[in-house]
User: What shape does this take?
Amino acid sequence: MSAPEASQMGSKLDEDHVPETNGRMAVCRRCGFRTDGTTGAAHAPMDGQEAKATRWLDGQAKANRVAKARGMLGS
Assistant: This one.
């Protein structure tokens, strides 16, 4: 993954959720991808993680659709 692709994937992860770090490691606890620092202001995936990040985002989208459908059925 080139730098622009990594930045774009990082932005997609940021849109999905705010990075959550433990304050000691530059890794998001929610998705497991690297962040720009220990404070976790933004995601910064490494080279070669585009496919993994895409699968993770697709899984999140599917989980959100299922949760929404369950909420509609329960009403």
